[in-house]
Amino acid sequence: MDRTAALADASPLSFWLDDPGAPEPALPLVGSVTADLVVVGGGYTGLWAALLAKSDDPSRDVVVLEGDRCGWAASGRNGGFCAASITHGLGNGVERFPDEIGTLERLGRANLDAIEATVAAEGIECDFERTGELDVATEPHQVDWLREAESLALEHGGHPVLLGRDELRSEIHSPLYLGGLWEPDSCALVNPARLAWGLRAACERAGVRIHEHTRVEGLAAGGPGTGAPMVVRTTHGQVTAPRVVLATNAAPSPVKRLRKYIVPVYDYVLMTEPLTPDQTAAIGWERRQGIGTMGNQFLYYRRTADDRILFGGYDAIYHYGNSMGAALEQRPATFALLSTLFAETFPMLDDVRFSHAWAGAIDTCSRFCAFFDRSHDGRVASAAGYTGLGVGASRFGARVALDLVSGVDTDLTRLRFVRSKPIPFPPEPVRSIGINLTRWSLARADARGGERNLWLRALDKVGLGFDS
Predict the structure, then answer these.
(1) How confident is the model over 19-70, as pLDDT tens digits?
(2) I need a surface site. Which of 22, 328, 367, 449 has the fewest CB within 10 A?
(3) Was domain 3-13+129-186+262-364 assigned CATH 3.90.1170.50?
(4) Which residues pair with 183 in a beta bridge?
(5) Cβ neighbours of residue 366 closer than 8 Å, sequence gap 6 or more
(6) Hey, which residues does 135 pair with through a beta bridge?
(7) Is pLDDT at 448 greater than 90 in this prediction?
(8) What is the pTM of this model?
(9) Residue spans per domain, the chain
Protein backbone atom coordinates (compact mmCIF):
# COMPACT_ATOMS: atom_id res chain seq x y z
CA MET A 1 0.00 0.00 0.00
CA ASP A 2 1.07 3.57 -0.66
CA ARG A 3 2.03 4.79 2.82
CA THR A 4 0.31 8.12 2.13
CA ALA A 5 -2.92 6.25 1.47
CA ALA A 6 -2.55 4.40 4.77
CA LEU A 7 -2.74 7.77 6.53
CA ALA A 8 -5.42 9.36 4.36
CA ASP A 9 -8.28 8.92 6.82
CA ALA A 10 -6.35 9.31 10.08
CA SER A 11 -8.00 11.61 12.61
CA PRO A 12 -5.69 14.28 14.09
CA LEU A 13 -6.98 13.50 17.58
CA SER A 14 -5.43 11.26 20.22
CA PHE A 15 -7.13 7.89 19.89
CA TRP A 16 -7.41 7.65 23.66
CA LEU A 17 -9.14 11.02 24.00
CA ASP A 18 -11.43 10.41 21.01
CA ASP A 19 -13.71 8.36 23.23
CA PRO A 20 -17.49 8.77 23.55
CA GLY A 21 -17.14 7.64 27.15
CA ALA A 22 -15.20 10.76 28.16
CA PRO A 23 -16.64 12.38 31.28
CA GLU A 24 -18.54 15.63 31.18
CA PRO A 25 -16.34 18.66 31.92
CA ALA A 26 -16.20 20.00 35.45
CA LEU A 27 -17.28 23.58 35.96
CA PRO A 28 -14.59 26.28 35.78
CA LEU A 29 -13.71 28.23 38.90
CA VAL A 30 -15.55 31.53 39.21
CA GLY A 31 -14.96 33.73 42.25
CA SER A 32 -12.76 33.39 45.31
CA VAL A 33 -12.56 30.22 47.41
CA THR A 34 -10.34 28.78 50.13
CA ALA A 35 -8.88 25.31 50.54
CA ASP A 36 -6.29 23.38 52.51
CA LEU A 37 -4.39 22.32 49.39
CA VAL A 38 -4.44 23.52 45.78
CA VAL A 39 -3.16 21.26 43.00
CA VAL A 40 -2.33 22.98 39.71
CA GLY A 41 -2.65 20.54 36.83
CA GLY A 42 -5.18 17.77 36.17
CA GLY A 43 -2.87 15.18 34.65
CA TYR A 44 -1.56 12.08 36.39
CA THR A 45 0.67 13.88 38.89
CA GLY A 46 -2.03 16.32 39.93
CA LEU A 47 -4.77 13.71 40.19
CA TRP A 48 -2.56 11.33 42.16
CA ALA A 49 -1.55 14.19 44.47
CA ALA A 50 -5.19 15.06 45.15
CA LEU A 51 -6.21 11.44 45.71
CA LEU A 52 -3.25 10.66 47.98
CA ALA A 53 -3.83 13.87 49.94
CA LYS A 54 -7.39 12.80 50.67
CA SER A 55 -6.21 9.31 51.57
CA ASP A 56 -3.74 10.83 54.05
CA ASP A 57 -6.43 13.02 55.59
CA PRO A 58 -10.03 12.64 54.37
CA SER A 59 -10.97 15.92 56.06
CA ARG A 60 -8.48 17.92 53.99
CA ASP A 61 -10.14 20.31 51.54
CA VAL A 62 -8.41 19.80 48.18
CA VAL A 63 -8.97 21.78 44.97
CA VAL A 64 -7.59 20.79 41.54
CA LEU A 65 -7.27 23.47 38.84
CA GLU A 66 -6.90 22.31 35.23
CA GLY A 67 -6.49 24.69 32.31
CA ASP A 68 -8.24 22.38 29.84
CA ARG A 69 -9.63 18.92 30.68
CA CYS A 70 -8.19 16.39 33.12
CA GLY A 71 -5.94 14.03 31.17
CA TRP A 72 -6.05 16.25 28.09
CA ALA A 73 -2.30 16.78 27.66
CA ALA A 74 0.46 14.17 28.08
CA SER A 75 -1.72 11.95 30.28
CA GLY A 76 -4.12 11.34 27.38
CA ARG A 77 -1.61 11.21 24.51
CA ASN A 78 1.05 8.70 25.57
CA GLY A 79 1.52 5.05 24.66
CA GLY A 80 0.11 3.73 27.93
CA PHE A 81 3.36 2.12 29.17
CA CYS A 82 3.06 2.19 32.97
CA ALA A 83 6.60 1.29 34.03
CA ALA A 84 7.90 0.32 37.45
CA SER A 85 11.09 2.36 36.99
CA ILE A 86 11.02 5.84 38.50
CA THR A 87 14.49 6.65 37.10
CA HIS A 88 13.67 6.26 33.39
CA GLY A 89 15.15 2.80 33.29
CA LEU A 90 17.65 0.93 35.40
CA GLY A 91 20.66 2.06 33.34
CA ASN A 92 19.85 5.73 33.80
CA GLY A 93 19.25 5.18 37.51
CA VAL A 94 22.55 3.35 38.04
CA GLU A 95 24.44 6.06 36.15
CA ARG A 96 22.96 8.96 38.11
CA PHE A 97 22.06 7.53 41.53
CA PRO A 98 24.36 4.53 42.11
CA ASP A 99 24.21 4.75 45.91
CA GLU A 100 20.40 4.81 45.96
CA ILE A 101 19.48 2.59 43.03
CA GLY A 102 18.52 -0.39 45.21
CA THR A 103 16.09 1.78 47.15
CA LEU A 104 14.77 3.46 44.00
CA GLU A 105 14.14 0.13 42.31
CA ARG A 106 12.29 -1.14 45.38
CA LEU A 107 10.21 2.03 45.57
CA GLY A 108 9.42 1.80 41.86
CA ARG A 109 8.14 -1.77 42.12
CA ALA A 110 6.05 -0.84 45.16
CA ASN A 111 4.70 2.16 43.27
CA LEU A 112 3.53 0.03 40.33
CA ASP A 113 1.94 -2.43 42.76
CA ALA A 114 0.10 0.47 44.41
CA ILE A 115 -1.18 1.72 41.04
CA GLU A 116 -2.50 -1.75 40.25
CA ALA A 117 -4.16 -1.93 43.67
CA THR A 118 -5.80 1.48 43.24
CA VAL A 119 -7.10 0.58 39.77
CA ALA A 120 -8.73 -2.50 41.27
CA ALA A 121 -10.03 -0.85 44.43
CA GLU A 122 -11.50 2.15 42.61
CA GLY A 123 -12.91 0.07 39.76
CA ILE A 124 -10.98 2.06 37.13
CA GLU A 125 -11.71 0.49 33.73
CA CYS A 126 -8.47 1.32 31.92
CA ASP A 127 -7.55 -2.09 30.39
CA PHE A 128 -4.73 -2.56 32.92
CA GLU A 129 -2.51 -5.45 31.73
CA ARG A 130 0.76 -6.28 33.52
CA THR A 131 2.40 -7.79 30.44
CA GLY A 132 5.91 -6.48 30.99
CA GLU A 133 8.14 -4.70 28.49
CA LEU A 134 10.21 -6.22 25.70
CA ASP A 135 13.30 -4.42 24.39
CA VAL A 136 14.22 -5.60 20.88
CA ALA A 137 17.49 -5.39 18.94
CA THR A 138 17.20 -4.60 15.24
CA GLU A 139 20.94 -4.02 14.59
CA PRO A 140 23.85 -6.37 15.43
CA HIS A 141 25.51 -4.01 17.94
CA GLN A 142 22.26 -3.80 19.90
CA VAL A 143 22.43 -7.51 20.74
CA ASP A 144 25.45 -6.73 22.93
CA TRP A 145 23.41 -3.98 24.57
CA LEU A 146 20.72 -6.54 25.42
CA ARG A 147 23.28 -8.78 27.13
CA GLU A 148 24.59 -5.83 29.13
CA ALA A 149 21.04 -4.89 30.14
CA GLU A 150 20.35 -8.49 31.19
CA SER A 151 23.44 -8.54 33.44
CA LEU A 152 22.50 -5.20 34.99
CA ALA A 153 18.92 -6.33 35.66
CA LEU A 154 20.10 -9.59 37.26
CA GLU A 155 22.55 -7.67 39.43
CA HIS A 156 19.71 -5.52 40.78
CA GLY A 157 17.12 -8.18 41.47
CA GLY A 158 15.32 -8.26 38.13
CA HIS A 159 14.02 -11.32 36.33
CA PRO A 160 14.85 -10.68 32.68
CA VAL A 161 14.27 -13.23 29.93
CA LEU A 162 16.83 -13.02 27.11
CA LEU A 163 15.42 -14.16 23.77
CA GLY A 164 17.53 -15.10 20.75
CA ARG A 165 16.60 -14.16 17.21
CA ASP A 166 14.76 -17.33 16.31
CA GLU A 167 13.01 -17.60 19.66
CA LEU A 168 11.80 -14.01 19.46
CA ARG A 169 10.74 -14.20 15.83
CA SER A 170 8.74 -17.34 16.52
CA GLU A 171 6.82 -15.42 19.18
CA ILE A 172 6.45 -12.06 17.41
CA HIS A 173 6.73 -12.35 13.66
CA SER A 174 8.93 -9.45 12.60
CA PRO A 175 11.84 -9.99 10.20
CA LEU A 176 13.78 -7.14 11.84
CA TYR A 177 14.31 -8.75 15.23
CA LEU A 178 17.79 -10.00 16.16
CA GLY A 179 17.06 -10.58 19.84
CA GLY A 180 15.07 -9.30 22.77
CA LEU A 181 15.03 -8.82 26.54
CA TRP A 182 11.67 -9.29 28.23
CA GLU A 183 11.11 -8.17 31.82
CA PRO A 184 7.72 -9.72 32.59
CA ASP A 185 6.83 -7.71 35.69
CA SER A 186 8.44 -4.37 34.93
CA CYS A 187 5.58 -2.66 33.15
CA ALA A 188 1.82 -2.63 32.73
CA LEU A 189 -0.13 -1.41 29.72
CA VAL A 190 -3.12 0.86 30.22
CA ASN A 191 -5.59 2.98 28.32
CA PRO A 192 -4.01 6.27 29.49
CA ALA A 193 -7.01 8.55 29.11
CA ARG A 194 -9.29 6.16 30.95
CA LEU A 195 -6.72 5.90 33.73
CA ALA A 196 -6.77 9.70 34.07
CA TRP A 197 -10.56 9.82 33.96
CA GLY A 198 -10.75 7.01 36.52
CA LEU A 199 -8.44 8.92 38.86
CA ARG A 200 -10.56 12.03 38.33
CA ALA A 201 -13.70 10.10 39.32
CA ALA A 202 -11.94 8.62 42.36
CA CYS A 203 -10.91 12.12 43.42
CA GLU A 204 -14.46 13.38 43.13
CA ARG A 205 -15.78 10.45 45.18
CA ALA A 206 -13.23 11.33 47.85
CA GLY A 207 -14.50 14.91 47.95
CA VAL A 208 -11.88 16.70 45.83
CA ARG A 209 -13.20 19.83 44.11
CA ILE A 210 -12.09 19.83 40.47
CA HIS A 211 -12.33 22.85 38.17
CA GLU A 212 -11.57 22.37 34.48
CA HIS A 213 -11.08 25.09 31.85
CA THR A 214 -9.51 27.10 34.67
CA ARG A 215 -6.18 28.54 33.63
CA VAL A 216 -3.79 29.58 36.39
CA GLU A 217 -2.41 33.07 35.75
CA GLY A 218 -0.40 33.76 38.87
CA LEU A 219 0.92 32.44 42.17
CA ALA A 220 1.95 34.62 45.11
CA ALA A 221 1.92 34.85 48.88
CA GLY A 222 -1.28 36.34 50.22
CA GLY A 223 0.50 38.58 52.71
CA PRO A 224 3.82 39.31 54.47
CA GLY A 225 5.66 36.67 56.49
CA THR A 226 6.33 32.98 56.05
CA GLY A 227 2.98 32.01 57.56
CA ALA A 228 0.90 33.81 54.95
CA PRO A 229 -1.22 31.57 52.70
CA MET A 230 -0.66 31.27 48.95
CA VAL A 231 -3.05 32.83 46.46
CA VAL A 232 -3.48 31.04 43.13
CA ARG A 233 -5.04 33.43 40.61
CA THR A 234 -7.07 32.09 37.68
CA THR A 235 -8.85 33.74 34.74
CA HIS A 236 -12.09 34.25 36.64
CA GLY A 237 -11.23 33.69 40.29
CA GLN A 238 -8.66 32.65 42.85
CA VAL A 239 -7.97 30.02 45.52
CA THR A 240 -6.32 30.86 48.82
CA ALA A 241 -4.61 27.95 50.59
CA PRO A 242 -1.61 27.31 52.85
CA ARG A 243 -0.15 24.66 50.51
CA VAL A 244 0.17 24.28 46.71
CA VAL A 245 1.36 21.36 44.56
CA LEU A 246 2.41 22.21 41.00
CA ALA A 247 1.89 19.43 38.44
CA THR A 248 2.26 21.34 35.19
CA ASN A 249 4.33 18.82 33.17
CA ALA A 250 5.69 20.41 29.96
CA ALA A 251 3.69 23.64 30.37
CA PRO A 252 5.58 26.65 31.79
CA SER A 253 5.70 26.43 35.57
CA PRO A 254 4.17 29.27 37.63
CA VAL A 255 7.55 29.23 39.44
CA LYS A 256 9.59 30.91 36.71
CA ARG A 257 13.02 29.75 37.88
CA LEU A 258 11.97 26.13 37.19
CA ARG A 259 11.36 26.77 33.49
CA LYS A 260 15.08 26.45 32.67
CA TYR A 261 14.96 22.78 33.64
CA ILE A 262 12.25 21.69 31.16
CA VAL A 263 12.04 21.61 27.38
CA PRO A 264 8.83 20.43 25.66
CA VAL A 265 9.69 17.80 23.04
CA TYR A 266 6.96 16.60 20.69
CA ASP A 267 6.48 12.86 20.29
CA TYR A 268 4.35 11.49 17.43
CA VAL A 269 2.05 8.47 17.44
CA LEU A 270 -0.04 6.39 15.03
CA MET A 271 -2.91 4.04 15.82
CA THR A 272 -4.05 1.39 13.37
CA GLU A 273 -7.59 0.37 12.64
CA PRO A 274 -8.61 -2.84 14.45
CA LEU A 275 -6.83 -5.88 13.03
CA THR A 276 -8.79 -8.76 11.60
CA PRO A 277 -8.41 -12.21 13.21
CA ASP A 278 -6.17 -13.26 10.31
CA GLN A 279 -3.97 -10.20 10.72
CA THR A 280 -3.73 -10.77 14.46
CA ALA A 281 -2.71 -14.38 13.88
CA ALA A 282 -0.10 -13.30 11.34
CA ILE A 283 1.91 -11.29 13.87
CA GLY A 284 1.75 -13.65 16.87
CA TRP A 285 2.52 -11.44 19.88
CA GLU A 286 0.15 -13.42 22.09
CA ARG A 287 1.76 -12.26 25.34
CA ARG A 288 0.99 -8.65 24.35
CA GLN A 289 4.16 -7.11 25.77
CA GLY A 290 4.88 -3.45 25.30
CA ILE A 291 7.80 -3.26 22.87
CA GLY A 292 10.61 -0.74 22.53
CA THR A 293 13.50 -0.79 20.06
CA MET A 294 17.08 -0.32 21.27
CA GLY A 295 18.22 2.53 19.02
CA ASN A 296 18.84 6.08 20.14
CA GLN A 297 15.99 6.99 17.79
CA PHE A 298 13.69 4.38 19.24
CA LEU A 299 10.22 3.13 18.47
CA TYR A 300 7.64 1.92 20.94
CA TYR A 301 4.54 -0.08 20.14
CA ARG A 302 1.84 -2.15 21.77
CA ARG A 303 -1.47 -3.87 21.21
CA THR A 304 -4.72 -2.42 22.51
CA ALA A 305 -7.75 -4.10 24.03
CA ASP A 306 -9.59 -3.95 20.69
CA ASP A 307 -6.65 -5.40 18.70
CA ARG A 308 -5.21 -2.24 17.26
CA ILE A 309 -1.49 -1.44 17.27
CA LEU A 310 -0.17 1.82 18.64
CA PHE A 311 3.13 2.75 16.95
CA GLY A 312 5.12 5.82 17.99
CA GLY A 313 8.43 7.44 18.73
CA TYR A 314 11.58 7.79 16.60
CA ASP A 315 11.34 11.53 15.89
CA ALA A 316 11.48 13.83 18.94
CA ILE A 317 11.00 17.42 17.88
CA TYR A 318 11.90 20.54 19.84
CA HIS A 319 10.66 23.92 18.65
CA TYR A 320 12.64 27.10 19.22
CA GLY A 321 11.88 29.00 22.40
CA ASN A 322 10.06 26.09 24.10
CA SER A 323 7.16 26.67 21.69
CA MET A 324 3.99 24.69 22.25
CA GLY A 325 0.61 24.69 20.52
CA ALA A 326 -1.96 22.66 18.62
CA ALA A 327 -0.33 23.47 15.25
CA LEU A 328 2.78 21.52 16.32
CA GLU A 329 0.82 18.32 16.93
CA GLN A 330 0.58 17.46 13.23
CA ARG A 331 3.79 16.67 11.32
CA PRO A 332 3.06 14.83 8.06
CA ALA A 333 6.72 13.96 7.41
CA THR A 334 7.00 12.16 10.76
CA PHE A 335 3.69 10.36 10.33
CA ALA A 336 4.82 9.17 6.88
CA LEU A 337 8.11 7.95 8.37
CA LEU A 338 6.32 6.11 11.18
CA SER A 339 3.99 4.50 8.64
CA THR A 340 6.99 3.28 6.62
CA LEU A 341 8.75 1.95 9.74
CA PHE A 342 5.53 0.16 10.73
CA ALA A 343 5.41 -1.63 7.36
CA GLU A 344 9.07 -2.62 7.71
CA THR A 345 8.46 -3.99 11.19
CA PHE A 346 5.31 -5.91 10.21
CA PRO A 347 5.35 -6.41 6.42
CA MET A 348 2.41 -8.81 6.71
CA LEU A 349 0.35 -5.76 7.79
CA ASP A 350 1.32 -3.60 4.82
CA ASP A 351 -2.33 -3.08 3.91
CA VAL A 352 -3.35 -1.87 7.38
CA ARG A 353 -4.57 1.71 7.59
CA PHE A 354 -4.27 4.17 10.45
CA SER A 355 -7.30 5.64 12.21
CA HIS A 356 -5.50 8.29 14.31
CA ALA A 357 -2.27 10.30 14.09
CA TRP A 358 -1.38 12.70 16.91
CA ALA A 359 1.35 14.11 19.11
CA GLY A 360 1.99 15.22 22.66
CA ALA A 361 4.62 17.30 24.42
CA ILE A 362 7.05 15.47 26.71
CA ASP A 363 8.42 17.34 29.74
CA THR A 364 12.07 16.60 29.05
CA CYS A 365 14.80 17.37 31.59
CA SER A 366 18.52 16.74 31.34
CA ARG A 367 18.56 13.77 33.72
CA PHE A 368 15.57 12.12 31.97
CA CYS A 369 13.64 11.41 35.17
CA ALA A 370 11.52 13.45 37.54
CA PHE A 371 12.95 16.21 39.70
CA PHE A 372 11.39 18.06 42.61
CA ASP A 373 11.35 21.53 44.12
CA ARG A 374 10.15 23.52 47.12
CA SER A 375 9.54 27.26 46.86
CA HIS A 376 7.80 30.10 48.71
CA ASP A 377 9.27 29.03 52.06
CA GLY A 378 8.12 25.45 51.54
CA ARG A 379 4.50 26.29 50.84
CA VAL A 380 4.77 25.22 47.18
CA ALA A 381 6.12 21.89 45.88
CA SER A 382 6.65 20.77 42.29
CA ALA A 383 7.24 17.51 40.44
CA ALA A 384 8.12 17.47 36.73
CA GLY A 385 10.61 16.21 34.15
CA TYR A 386 9.43 12.61 33.67
CA THR A 387 10.75 12.65 30.06
CA GLY A 388 8.16 10.30 28.65
CA LEU A 389 7.94 7.73 31.45
CA GLY A 390 5.46 9.48 33.70
CA VAL A 391 2.49 7.13 33.52
CA GLY A 392 3.81 5.13 36.45
CA ALA A 393 6.37 7.50 37.97
CA SER A 394 3.79 10.28 38.32
CA ARG A 395 2.22 8.58 41.32
CA PHE A 396 5.61 8.49 43.03
CA GLY A 397 6.19 12.12 42.03
CA ALA A 398 2.88 13.09 43.60
CA ARG A 399 3.79 11.30 46.83
CA VAL A 400 7.12 13.13 47.01
CA ALA A 401 5.50 16.50 46.30
CA LEU A 402 3.00 15.97 49.13
CA ASP A 403 5.80 15.06 51.52
CA LEU A 404 7.77 18.14 50.49
CA VAL A 405 4.88 20.55 50.87
CA SER A 406 3.99 19.07 54.25
CA GLY A 407 7.38 20.14 55.56
CA VAL A 408 8.00 16.84 57.33
CA ASP A 409 11.19 14.80 57.11
CA THR A 410 10.50 11.44 55.40
CA ASP A 411 12.48 8.62 53.83
CA LEU A 412 11.56 10.06 50.44
CA THR A 413 12.55 13.67 51.10
CA ARG A 414 15.98 12.52 52.32
CA LEU A 415 16.82 10.84 48.99
CA ARG A 416 19.46 12.54 46.85
CA PHE A 417 17.15 11.68 43.96
CA VAL A 418 14.64 14.07 45.52
CA ARG A 419 17.03 16.70 46.82
CA SER A 420 19.12 17.13 43.64
CA LYS A 421 18.28 18.98 40.42
CA PRO A 422 19.09 18.26 36.79
CA ILE A 423 21.51 20.49 34.89
CA PRO A 424 19.47 23.39 33.47
CA PHE A 425 19.19 23.95 29.74
CA PRO A 426 20.98 27.03 28.38
CA PRO A 427 19.03 30.00 27.00
CA GLU A 428 18.21 30.39 23.32
CA PRO A 429 19.73 30.21 20.78
CA VAL A 430 22.25 27.88 22.44
CA ARG A 431 19.40 25.66 23.63
CA SER A 432 18.11 24.94 20.12
CA ILE A 433 21.60 24.53 18.69
CA GLY A 434 22.53 22.02 21.40
CA ILE A 435 19.31 20.01 21.13
CA ASN A 436 19.45 19.78 17.34
CA LEU A 437 23.14 18.88 17.37
CA THR A 438 22.33 16.12 19.84
CA ARG A 439 19.50 14.80 17.64
CA TRP A 440 21.80 14.76 14.62
CA SER A 441 24.55 13.01 16.59
CA LEU A 442 22.18 10.35 17.90
CA ALA A 443 20.94 9.57 14.39
CA ARG A 444 24.56 9.36 13.24
CA ALA A 445 25.40 6.97 16.09
CA ASP A 446 22.52 4.69 15.09
CA ALA A 447 23.85 4.64 11.53
CA ARG A 448 27.39 3.84 12.72
CA GLY A 449 26.81 0.83 14.93
CA GLY A 450 26.21 2.86 18.08
CA GLU A 451 29.52 4.75 17.89
CA ARG A 452 29.15 8.03 19.77
CA ASN A 453 30.84 11.10 18.36
CA LEU A 454 32.82 13.73 20.26
CA TRP A 455 29.68 15.74 21.08
CA LEU A 456 27.84 12.78 22.61
CA ARG A 457 30.93 11.70 24.53
CA ALA A 458 31.21 15.22 25.94
CA LEU A 459 27.56 15.10 27.05
CA ASP A 460 28.21 11.72 28.69
CA LYS A 461 31.15 13.18 30.60
CA VAL A 462 29.13 16.02 32.13
CA GLY A 463 26.10 13.85 32.94
CA LEU A 464 23.90 14.83 30.01
CA GLY A 465 24.19 11.62 28.02
CA PHE A 466 20.90 10.64 26.43
CA ASP A 467 19.22 7.48 27.69
CA SER A 468 16.13 6.44 25.75
Answers:
(1) 999 999 999 999 999 999 999 999 999 999 999 999 999 999 999 999 999 9
(2) 449
(3) no
(4) 133
(5) 261, 422, 423, 424, 425, 463, 464
(6) 181, 292
(7) no
(8) 0.96
(9) 3-13+129-186+262-364, 430-461
